[in-house]
Design a protein that fits this description.
The structure holds two protein chains of two kinds. By secondary structure, chain A is mainly beta. Chain A contains no helices and eleven strands. In chain B, the strands form two sheets. In chain B, strands 2, 4, 5, 6, 9, 10 and 11 form a seven-stranded mixed β-sheet that branches. Chain B has a four-stranded antiparallel β-sheet with strand order 1-3-8-7, with no helix packed on it. Classes of the chains: A mainly beta, B mainly beta.
Chain lengths: 115, 112
């Protein structure tokens, strides 16, 4: 059974600090996505990581993928309050052919950035 | 237009009711999805449609019945639901497998 685990589940951090969220998964996949969800809202796509060693950056967020270690990280640089949200990684289980994703979401990390 | 539109935004229904959730996208995406999300939990995949055909059913109870009438529309028909089916139901679409799925705002369903 596939497990996608995020660490930590809850993160309270001060503005201006750096931190990393980890996403570990238990099966082979070379496609991983990061999403953000604000309370009561839908999911916003942040990053698409499609190969081993992929690194993407947008503003204060940077995501990376190590398919050999089955690990993705989401690094937050100099956090600001606006980054407060729940962050999900999602592993795509569909490896061969097909036109669709089969996303299995991680447990989620609730990030609270304190002034 | 990068929107996935879901209606209604909120729905309260009794256990004997029949209702439908609707989802629409005009991005030309040929893959569409239904997810269920309980409070403080990650989304769980329910159904996947590819080119208007049901591709994946994640062992969802038959009281949930999906329908894809055309490439832009996705419905979820609900009948004889239980209170534990109360959740946020999210629709998503994607262009192809290697691109991200775009999510709608969701329908918050309460079964009483």
């Amino acid at each position: 059974e596939l497990k996608v685990e995020q660490n930590p589940l809850f993160l309270s951090m001060q503005e201006g600090k750096n931190y990393t969220i980890y996403c570990n998964y238990s099966t082979t996949s070379d496609r991983l996505y990061w999403y953000r969800q604000d309370p009561g809202k839908s999911l916003e796509s942040l990053f698409v990581l499609l190969s081993n060693g992929a690194v993407k950056q947008e503003g204060r967020l940077m995501a990376s993928l190590d398919t050999k270690a089955r690990l993705s990280t989401l690094h937050i640089t100099a956090a600001v309050h606006d980054l407060s949200a729940t962050y999900f990684c999602a592993v795509d289980l569909r490896r061969y052919g097909g036109a669709t994703n089969k996303l299995i979401f991680g447990t989620g990390t609730l990030l609270a950035v304190q002034p | 237009d990068t929107e996935v539109t879901q209606t209604p935004k909120h729905l309260v229904m009794g256990m004997t009711n029949k209702k439908s959730l609707k989802c629409e996208q005009h991005m030309g995406h040929r893959a569409m999805y239904w997810y269920k999300q309980k409070a403080k939990k990650p989304p769980e995949l329910m159904f996947v449609y590819s080119y208007e055909k049901l591709s994946i059913n994640e062992s969802v109870p038959s009281r949930f019945s999906p329908e894809c009438p055309n490439s832009s529309l996705l419905n979820l028909h609900l009948h004889a639901l239980q209170p534990e089916d109360s959740a946020l139901y999210l629709c998503a679409s994607s262009l192809q497998r290697v691109t991200e799925a775009f999510f709608g705002q969701g329908t918050r369903l309460t079964v009483v």
